[in-house]
Amino acid sequence: MSDTIFSKIIRREIPADIVFESDDVLAFRDVNPQAPVHVLFIPKKPFATLNDVSVSDSELLGKLLLAAAAYAKQEGFAEQGYRTVINCNEDGGQTVFHLHVHLLAGRHMHWPPG
Ligand code: AMP
């Protein structure tokens, strides 16, 4: 896959407000937040979309979601609630082609999403 702005964040070539890092996962605040809390969880290994993840990367996908849940618990909004979102390709509204999980919290979320 081609390089993206998120790969540049992983390599520290552009700044980001990083809130969590492990060997496999990086999390940073979204520059255009859609809720009081809006953090992106990305695998350091680049996949363009969810379609590009294979079974051999199942553990990594799990780590992404578990990192988001752990952050929610750490920050104290897990019980109140939050939303995780993975946008995929054009109809999903994906704009950055490096797989990421949005974690949104701090307000009541609407359903269905727009
Ligand atoms: P998506 O539309 O699901 O691909 O989400 C991409 C997200 O990345 C959007 O919510 C953008 O606001 C966010 N974004 C784009 N560039 C940056 C950046 N340099 N730092 C943090 N978030 C970014």
CATH architecture: 2-Layer Sandwich
User: Which percent bin holds the helix content?
Assistant: 10-25%
Gap between N and C termini: 28 Å
CATH class: Alpha Beta
- Total beta-strand segments: 5
Give the name of the CATH superfamily.
HIT-like
Give a short summary of the structure:
By secondary structure, this protein is an alpha+beta fold. It has helices at 5-10, 58-75, 89-92; strands at 18-21, 25-29, 37-43, 83-85, 101-105.
Description:
The chain has 114 residues and is an alpha+beta fold. The protein has one domain: 2-Layer Sandwich (HIT family, subunit A), CATH 3.30.428. Helices cover 25% and strands 21% of the residues. The chain is built from three helices and five strands. Strands 1-2-3-5-4 form a five-stranded antiparallel β-sheet, covered by helices on one side. It starts with a helix and ends in a 9-residue tail after the last strand. 19% of the residues are buried. The mean pLDDT is 97.
Properties at a glance:
114 residues, alpha+beta, five-stranded antiparallel beta sheet, 21% strand, binds adenosine monophosphate
Strand and helix map with partners:
Blueprint: H1 5-10, E1 18-21, E2 25-29, E3 37-43, H2 58-75, E4 83-85, H3 89-92, E5 101-105
Antiparallel strand pairs: 1-2, 2-3, 3-5, 4-5
